[in-house]
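Request from the bench team (R.T.):
"We need a structural guess for the complex before ordering more pyridoxal-5'-phosphate. Sequence and SMILES attached. Just send the tokens back."

Command: build protein-pyridoxal-5'-phosphate structure.
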Amino acid sequence: MYTVGEEEIEALARVIRSKALFRYGVGHECDRFEERYAAHLGVKHFALSASGSNALVAALVALGIGPGDEVLIPAHTYMATGTAVLAAGAIPVIVDVDDTITIDPQAIEAAIGPQTRAVIPVHMWGAACNMDAIMDIAKRRNLLVIEDSCQGVGGGYEGRKFGSIGHIGAFSFNFYKNMTAGEGGGVAVNDDRLAKRVRGAIDPCHFYWHGRDGEDKPFAGNGARASELMGAMLNVQLDRIDGMVAKMRAEKMRILAGTAAFGNLGLKPTRMNSADHDCATHVMFTMPNAEAAQKFITVFPSVIAGKTGRHTYTEWDQILIREGAAHPAMNPYLMPANAKCRMDYSKDMCARSLEILNRTVMVPTNPEHSDAQIDDMIHNIGVASRVALAGMSPEEAELRNVIPVDARKFDALGRPDAA
Ligand SMILES: *Cc1c(COP(=O)(O)O)cnc(C)c1O
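Reply to R.T.: structure attached below.
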């Protein structure tokens, strides 16, 4: 969550006063948001759901992915990317990220086996995966591409919005995401038939609200319908998103220009797949080693990508222990249909990813930062760099002269705590 104000309060109050809190046949906020967000993304359909996790499941289920299928996921993502694959009855296969800390196209190609049906590139921290390479592999090797764009609201890859490039895209609007209604999510898709299946996966009764057309057999989906409160709040957030992202991009450019002036200190911005189109929610730096990253964050309050506590495969407990469902008969790891899928996980299986993630440092931006605050941040990054990269003590590195700008606590996503 970045900016929330009176406009959201008014929109919510309006819906509450109208008593039209149900989306179908009662209110219009969800319909309006779905149309507007589809246009924003440049896709034909957008379907709201209760969460990003559910949106991923709906996307996978709509594509017909299930038992017998492997889905490639990156070693660095929120665990819902993997648990969504399990909820569809398929098996997640974990592959390495590269120095961009997004899924490595070469690792995708190397991991494709006879059971592999799909890949989920995740635009982590608002930064793009290498979509040209991924779509090229997908075409040659016949893979479906589900873009996990939960952290990529407002951003894109080389001029196209995240979630509009693969076969289907999933979004989250939870509290930590770039646009929020507290919780929420949705699916972006062009294909009409897939869109219907997505709506069926989100709401088992959807054919009652939309009309039975007899084209496609209904299947038992989950209950994850959006409320008009979500739609109303997101309509206001959508008015803000381009402005918020523009401010964060300007902040990122100012920080990169400011820190480039440190010259021979050797502070290295992380390589980006689409540097001008990301959400710029973070400015990332790749340190020479994990020790330097650790030193950096003790001086400058920021986050090491590999140390958030929930975004690296070593922390996905259910997957590592193969508890793929509440009931053993529904556990994809125990299903005969999945017998040929690869499911041997270990904590060191993606050692290359861990090595990269543990030396990638993320400095969070915020559209509310003033230029003076950003300049203080640049100064502080300089101090942290002298400590981390030049072996200075904090005193030598002029820590005393520094006014801590953002001494507030940071949450696990690297954003300043709301409190
Ligand atoms: C937040 C997130 C999700 C899940 O979204 P929820 O709305 O929290 O269910 C999935 N994937 C990624 C990469 C996320 O960051």
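Two things stood out. The chain has a mean pLDDT of 93. The pocket of pyridoxal-5'-phosphate is lined by residues 51-53, 77-78, 80-81, 122, 148, 150-151, 172, 174, 185 (CB under 6 Å).
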